[in-house]
Amino acid sequence: MKKQSTDRDMIFRGRFEVIEPYLYLLPFMLGVVVFTLYPVINVVLMSFKQDYSMLTRGFSSWGFGNYQKTLTDANFWQAIRNTLRYVLLVVPISLVLALLIANFLNQKLKGSAVYQSIFFLPMVTSVTAVGLAWKFMFNNRGVINYFLSFLGVKAIPWLRSSQMGAYNMTALVIFGIWNIMPFTIILLLSGLQNIDPQYRVAAKVDAASDVRIFFRITVPLLAPTIFLVGIVNTISCFKVFSELYPLFGGNPGAMGNLYTVVYYIRTSMMTYQDYGVASAAALILFGFIAVFTFAQNGIRKITERRKVR
């Protein structure tokens, strides 16, 4: 009897050891299913439900009417143009500036910890609160126009209706670059610190200049991190909303001409209660992000193959 009991215990322990890891993962998996997988599936289904009502969960029919309505809306195409413009300006400019700053912070200088704290401040502050601060700085009598006055530049209406909203986009891009810089610097700085210093020492022995070392050694070795940062920042910039909302008091620009895709989704959902259109726009945004991500990943693979050759 004791032997049979021992065998049963061993079998039970063996089965439990197989199941045990999944039991630890179960709470996390439940959270993923409830808060990630189900909402995604629900958004996909809502995008094909025409005249969908959130209160009654009813709809008139299945079809592509929401997509047709979205793709024929002038505000949506304005949102696409503004979002693409924002991405194409913020991502490369922030990447270049962050690379220069990260390289500076990587040097063994006195007070480097203080400099790092200064550059990382935006990460620990609320985007909305900082956006209100930038709103005051972009004011006609704000700090930015005050310093520009020393250069003989007249007060620029950054947040007002002028020149078809060109200044509005410029203000949004400046704020976006400032907001995304800390995260970019952290990733690039970690990549720089993982580069073997012997490469730099060997280049110095060959009398290579700092500029040559930076472009011929540092940047190529940092290429995987740069591509990673580019993909992450592209996804983040496509979802621009929290930078826009506080600058213009909850409006899409001074003249309503600064719609972004996420702002368009928010307006369709909250203002017009058109959840089908909002879902269709969200999936179209997902398509744009996927295309840009795959394109960047493809460029990375091509670059790596050329290095191998």
Short structural summary:
The chain is built from 13 helices and two strands; from the N terminus they run H-E-E-H-H-H-H-H-H-H-H-H-H-H-H. It has 309 residues and is an all-alpha fold.
What does this structure look like?
The protein is an all-alpha fold. The protein has two domains: 1-33; 65-308, MetI-like (MetI-like fold), CATH 1.10.3720.10. Helices cover 73% and strands 1% of the residues. The protein has helices at 2-47, 65-71, 74-105, 112-120, 127-137, 143-149, 166-193, 198-205, 210-221, 223-238, 244-247, 261-271, 275-308; strands at residues 49-50, 61-62.
Keywords:
mainly alpha, 73% helix, globular
Number of strands: 2
**Main β-sheet, in a few words?**
2 strands, antiparallel
The number of distinct structural domains comes to 2
- The portion of residues forming beta strands comes to under 5%
Order of helices and strands: HEEHHHHHHHHHHHH
End-to-end Cα distance, whole Å, is 69 Å
Radius of gyration: 26 Å
Helical segment count: 13
CATH architecture of the largest domain: Orthogonal Bundle
CATH topology name of the largest domain: MetI-like fold
User: What would the average pLDDT be, to the nearest integer?
Assistant: 83
Name of the CATH first level of the largest domain: Mainly Alpha
Helix content: over 70%
Give the arrangement of secondary structure elements.
Elements: H1 2-47, E1 49-50, E2 61-62, H2 65-71, H3 74-105, H4 112-120, H5 127-137, H6 143-149, H7 166-193, H8 198-205, H9 210-221, H10 223-238, H11 244-247, H12 261-271, H13 275-308
Antiparallel strand pairs: 1-2
Helix pairs in contact: 1-13, 2-13, 3-7, 3-10, 3-12, 7-10, 8-9, 10-13, 12-13
